[in-house]
Structure formats: structure tokens, C-alpha cells
Design a protein that fits this description.
Elements (H helix, E strand, L loop, with lengths): L17 H6 L6 H8 L1 H10 L11 E4 L2 E4 L4 E2 L1 H10 L7 E6 L5 E5 H17 L7 E5 L4 H13 L2 E4 L6 H11 L3 E5 L2 E3 L2 E3 L1 H9 L7 E5 L19 E3 H6 L10 E2 L3 E7 L7 E6 L1 H15 L6 E4 L6 H13 L3 E5 L10 H9 L3 E4 L1 H10 L2 H4 L8 E5 L5 H11 L6 E4 L33 E4 L9 E7 L9 E2 L3 H8 L10 E9 L5 E6 L3 E4 L2 E4 H9 L4 E11 L3 E10 L7 H14 L8 E4 L13 H8 L14 H14 L1
Parallel strand pairs: 4-17, 6-7, 6-8, 7-14, 8-11, 11-12, 16-17, 16-18, 18-19, 19-20, 29-30
Antiparallel strand pairs: 1-2, 3-13, 4-5, 9-10, 14-15, 15-23, 21-22, 22-24, 24-25, 26-27, 28-29
The chain binds 5'-O-(acetylsulfamoyl)adenosine (7RM).
Length: 654
Amino acid sequence: MSEIDALLTENRRFPSPPAFQRVATVSDAAVATAAAADPDAYWVTMARQLEWITPFTKGLEWTAPFATWFRDGQLNVSTNCLDRHIRTARRNKAAIIFEGEPGDTRTLTYWQLYIEVCKFANVLRSLGVRKGDRVAIYLPMIPEAAVAMLACARIGAIHNVVFGGFSPESLRDRINDSQCRVLITADGGFRRGQVVPLKRNADAAMTDTPSIEHCVVVQRRAGAMSEETHAQMQDGRDAWWHRLMQKAPLQCEPAVMDAEDPLFILYTSGTTGKPKGIVHSTGGYLTGVTTTSRQVFDLKDDDVFWCTADVGWVTGHSYVVYGPLANGATCMLYEGAPDWPDKNRMWDMCERHGVTIFYTAPTAIRAFMKWGEKHPNQHDLSRLRLLGTVGEPINPEAWMWYHRVIGKERCPIVDTWWQTETGAIVISPLPGLTETKPGSATHPLPGYSVALVDTHAQPIPVGGGLLTITRPWPSMLRTIWGDPQRYVDTYFSKWPGRPDLYFAGDGAKLDDDGYWWILGRVDDVLNVAGHRIGTMEVESALVGHPSVAEAAVVGKDHELKGQAIAAFVTLREGFTATSALRDELREFVGEKIGAIAKPDDILFSADLPKTRSGKIMRRLLRDIAEGRALGDTTTLADPSVVAGLKEQYEAQES
Ligand code: 7RM
């Protein structure tokens, strides 16, 4: 056997439910056929559905690896998300339904959001912010985050949203790299009943951010902040959001932006070095997120769409703010933790707010599984009609659980593959059309040219390889802020002489039916005795065992086999870590995949080291498995987890 693959033996199929199909926006495969015949013309048609101030005459222009889309067109993103809707009956429709962790709620109609955005855009202008200036946003998941982003878009300022869970140092580096003039933050945010002291962090960052002239501070909840979290306001630099807003005019002329003007910068970690400032455009980005939101999430006027991502990540940019609002949809915004005050929180909110579309990450789904069915089962989830996942490969067991327990075997699941760099979803089922297989992201969406290639850039029709995108797409990153060479080196230099091939950094497989199975980052794909094994495949097998809640698998150097497998396993409630269970799991993996995939080491642990966006830090697990000193742990949600794991691992080995 040259390839071992638990996933490819997955033969459950789920056709689009007829009841869903009947109402779906896309239920005819003709759209994909037409797009494939002429992708440029397809994207031009999609872009024309936006509101342009100056219509474009150019589509794609391409000097690899740099591309432009709709270059001579002009538009404004905020008018597409707001002004377009307030001229219609949508004016009084909810744009944002917000719930804070303490339980406070606020609903903003499109009209109310429009007024807030215009006022705050005027505030920014009064602080001296001009077209092309950078503005840092460091806020909790509150409506002001969306208002601030849209206000930047209205005046042509480039926002740089920094996730509220990042440290002062990370905030400082991101502000300095993009030379932001203004920082927008809050006195605090709520997380697990505690106050996250955002302004205090911002103050620490601002001791070393010479470009910052002003700091605007949202008062998250009057009287709620304790003495020590209460914001210290510095005269001349800091001002309260609500005070500035009191005096702000209601009218704000939108800036006329070129399609290729940057809309935002968002920092993302690479394999090494400092985070990269991914630059997204105005016209192409909006075309990509508007089109994919409509097609993949099937947004309708009566939907309540809940994408659980924080606006600090690209998923929050594209599918909490820009994509849904450009489509006139209603979005949920939730500030806090999924298990606060208890593990019913998400399902309680789905029920109370009548959520119809729910989009979250596999890591969250596995946590829900671990917490047990009793929580969702206490709630009426009958309004849900579509489920989505993003961020990492979803193992078939988690997919099936999501399908059965949350979707009641009624809702299609869209497993959406994309990246910060792609701006919008690239590979995903169309829920009214595509037959799904648990664990597969299925097929590229219309208009995308995706290819699986080998290390020599030769296309692979069936089997495993590297995921590449072979033609520019509108929402692709345009560059890395301040470092165009790094853009070329990271994404378009994998194959010498092929600057046209975008290297995504992910391994994938194509099965006999042409379905895509994303295996994860290529550095997560193992080679054990000449056999390629995705860490995901072993993880998927492990979580198929009734005792396992979550598993992370890494390769460790091995004298004979090249690499051996080390597994870190979290058990479900009611199971105990014993050496008998360890043996059982090894055998279980052997049974599921083949003897070659049996982990050499299995370590039981209460927690796995994760980034704040929920991605397991396999690099750190490899450090542990290979007995090295731990690398950088600063991006972890809880750095103590990994130190504890290392001790435990070493104790077990001796
Ligand atoms: C949206 C987002 C990107 C990386 C990407 C993959 C992994 C994302 C899926 C997935 C398997 C998916 N942006 N990834 N979605 N892997 N199936 N549906 O997550 O820039 O933060 O991460 O995430 O490895 O390269 S991101």
C-alpha cells in the first residue's frame, strides 16, 4: 500500500436535502459550467452586481504574480454594505444582533448602523485621518468593531484589526509595521466573566508606537469596570468614543475609492519570522466575499446568520462584516466564551435569536461533542437550516455529530476551505447542489481555478499533492504590507519559472470522484517509512474512538522510519487515562488505518496547546515529542498548557 488514507474510505454521502434545494439560491450546476468556461467573464458579472461610482471597463489584468481586478472602476465598500440597503425596505431590518457575554443585547437596523458609521467616519476625519491612512482596531466583539471597520472604509482609511486576545507586544508590532495613526479600543471586554483589560494593554503598547496620534476608547459598559481595569485617559491623546460621537454630524460623504485601493491589512502568522500584513483590495475583495456569502450561505432576507469568528480573524472580516452586510443579511455578534455561564450558551442563543445559519470551527464542534448532547438537546434548534465549518480539516466523526446532533440530519453542512490570503471561500459545497462527504470540502466554487500538483508542479488528477490556485481570483491578497518581495517569495516562488502558481501551503487529496480532502499545512503531513500520512488522518482515527474528545498528532524524527508518530489525546468526560487505554488506542488506529499509522507515543492531556483562534500548535508538540526546548509560545491561548505537557511527556518517557 503506497498511500494510507482513512478518509478515502469514507463512503457516506449526503445529497442536498430536497427541502433545502427547492429554496436555494444556487441549485443549478450551469453556473459552475459557465464560470469554468470563462472565469474572468464570470467574475466581471459578479462584480457588476455591486454598486460602482465609476463602472469598470477592465476585468483581470495580470503580470504574474501581481494581478489587478476592475482597475479603472471606483466604489466605496461602506455604501455597498449600507447606503444600498437603506434606500429599500431593508432600511428597518436588523443588520446586527449583538449579545454581550453578561447577557446585554443590542440590535442595530441597517438605518441605525448607517448613522453610526457616518458619525464615526466623521469622528475619524476630525482626528485627522485621511484616505490611505492606517487605523488600528483593538476591540471586543461588539457592534463598535463593525462600525469602526465600516467607518474606515467610508473615508478610505485602511484598517488593521488586531484580535483582542493578543498581547500588548503583538499589538505594538502590528501598529508599528503599518504605521497606524489612530488606535480604537475599549476600556474592556468580557470573557468568562472576567474583564479583558484592552485599554491597559493598549497603553502598554502605546509606550512604543510613535505613529499613534489619537486613541479612541469605547466604554464597554458604564460602571462595569473595576478600579484597576478602568481606563486611564491621557490628555490630548485619548478620547471616549461616546463623547466624540455626541458632536459628530450625521452626514458623511463616502470617499471615492479605486478598486485596487487597499481596504484593510490583516496580520497572519507565517511558518517563521514576524507576522505578515496581508493586504486586501476594495473592489476585488468585496466581489469575492459578496459572491461567496450569497452562494455558500444561501443568505435570504429572513435569515439570522451566525458566524462565530472574532472580527480579529479573516473569517470575522469576510463573514461577520463585509460579505453578509453587502448582501443585506442579519448577523449575530457574540462577545464571549461558548461555555459561559454554562455549556448551553451557544444553543440558548441560537434558540432565543432564531439563528438559521451557523458557521463555526471544527475545534469548537469537538468541544461541543466533548461537553455532550444534553446541552444542544435542551434547546429548540429547529430554525437552523444550514451549518458551516472553517479553519481546519473536520474529521468525519465531528462532521457526523454536527450533522446529527445540531443539524438533526436536516441541514446541509458546508465545509469551507480558504485562507487569510484568499480573502474569501475557495473550496466548499454549494448547499443546494453539492452532494457532501463527511470530511471533504468537496469542490472549488465557480470562478476558481484550483489544481493539485506534485513537487514538480505537475497536475495530479487523483491522489495526494499540494494545493495551488492557478489563476488570479478577485479577493486574493495583493501584497504583504511593506514587503512585496516576501509576497513573491512566500506564495509564488515554490516552483521556479512558475510565478503564476499560488502555493497555498496546504496538502490535499483528490479522490476518484474528484472530491477535495484538505490534509492541512504541508508541514503537518508526515512521512513514515515512505508512506505519506496526514496528521489529520491519524487524528481522525483517534477521535473515532469513543473515549477520545480531541487528538493532535505530530511527526518525530525516527532512525529507521524517518518519522514516527506522536499523539496527544484529550479524553471525553467519564474516561480515565490508563496504559491499557493507551494500548487500545494504538490498536484502534492500527485497525482504522494500518499498522504503519500506529502512534509510537500517546500522551493523555487535559488540554492541547492552541492559538487563540483555536488552531493546535503542532510545532510546539513536535518540540515536546522530539525533546527540544520549547519554541515561541506567545501566541498560545494558554501558555501554561504546553509547559505542563512537556513535563508529563518527559516523565512518561523515563
Ligand atoms: C479561514 C482561515 C488558513 C488555513 C488553511 C488550512 C486551514 C481553513 C479549512 C482548513 C481544512 C477547511 N484562514 N483551513 N479552512 N483546512 N478544511 N475547511 O482559517 O488564514 O487563519 O487559516 O487553515 O490549513 O491554509 S487562516
